[in-house]
Design brief:
Layout (H helix, E strand, L loop, with lengths): L10 H14 L2 H8 L21 H8 L3
Length: about 70
Amino acid sequence: MYQKVNTDLNFVDREKEVEKFWKDEDIFRKSMESRKDGPTYTFYDGPPTANGKPHIGHVLTRVIRI
């Protein structure tokens, strides 16, 4: 069902490839253009703790949302 993931990935190079693809294909502009007539929405998020200094536990709960 899933292809095996190569564990020897160079994440820096991979990120540069993705960034180049987004730039070459003008992905951000296209994404904005495709939503121009859609409803406006806002993400609300505040400091993760009383002192506002996040750690990995705070980051995980904000990037992995179901």
